[in-house]
From TrEMBL:
<comment type="similarity">
    <text>Belongs to the FdhD family.</text>
</comment>
<protein>
    <recommendedName>
        <fullName>Sulfur carrier protein FdhD</fullName>
    </recommendedName>
</protein>
<keyword id="KW-0963">Cytoplasm</keyword>
<feature type="binding site">
    <location>
        <begin position="260"/>
        <end position="265"/>
    </location>
    <ligand>
        <name>Mo-bis(molybdopterin guanine dinucleotide)</name>
    </ligand>
</feature>
<dbReference type="InterPro" id="IPR016193">
    <property type="entry name" value="Cytidine_deaminase-like"/>
</dbReference>
<dbReference type="InterPro" id="IPR003786">
    <property type="entry name" value="FdhD"/>
</dbReference>
<keyword id="KW-0501">Molybdenum cofactor biosynthesis</keyword>
<feature type="active site" description="Cysteine persulfide intermediate">
    <location>
        <position position="122"/>
    </location>
</feature>
<dbReference type="Pfam" id="PF02634">
    <property type="entry name" value="FdhD-NarQ"/>
</dbReference>
<comment type="function">
    <text>Required for formate dehydrogenase (FDH) activity. Acts as a sulfur carrier protein that transfers sulfur from IscS to the molybdenum cofactor prior to its insertion into FDH.</text>
</comment>
Amino acid sequence: MLAVDLMTDERFAKGSWQTRVDVRRSGQGDPSLHEDYVAVEMPIAMVYNGISHAVMMATPENLEDFALGFSMSEGVLSEPSQLYDCEVKAVEHGLSVEMRIATSRLAALKERRRNLTGRTGCGLCGTESLEAAIRPVREVKAPPVSDRAVQRALGALQHFQPLQAQTGASHGAAWCDLDGNIRLTREDVGRHNALDKLLGALIAAAEPLHSGFVLVSSRASYEMVHKSCALGIGALVAVSAPTSMAIEQARAAGQLLIGFARNGRHVVYHRPEQE
């Protein structure tokens, strides 16, 4: 579905989601010069039928997953088949992800044009009205996720985050089965972007989304709950805290929401069967 021909541009060669820089390390003893790896962050434009809808600051990796996941989680598409084709083009200041979608979806997009400009970790920047910012959340069915499965997935997460291990600057989103096995992961400098990439990859892999949970290396915001519920995912586990609106949205949707997932402990903020 996605045609990517960027290899002629050295900015986007394989491994372009990280780069080396010269640094001076100070501490005890004399300062010393070293090479360090940093995560690449650049503007990624989401363009539908020639109309620029959003510019996200993101890591230029797995952009085919990002395009599909963003389009579905933001309600631009209601079915993956409505994305006819997609091409990534290198432009002067970043990348342009140019998608061709069904005419009916383009008309709906124009009706609720958000025209956001996303910064790292920000999914609602530029929303045109307060009413448009809080959209109805889709109802989901929470799967039976055990405490043991949460802890198992959490213990394995770091082994599925190579960009974070090398740069210390990325978020991870993982799809886990009900035994706590990590089946799929995606990374990005933005937590919403990492989740969108994961959602797109899950759609492409035709994973059964009723029999697992999402684990994210960040806090659980309104947007994280909304995006996961948009695809029918009934359980979200976050390494950090949820926000008040995330809890409200999880309750409205019937989603299992767990936060502060750390080694040996986690906090259940909403478990539907306990109501």
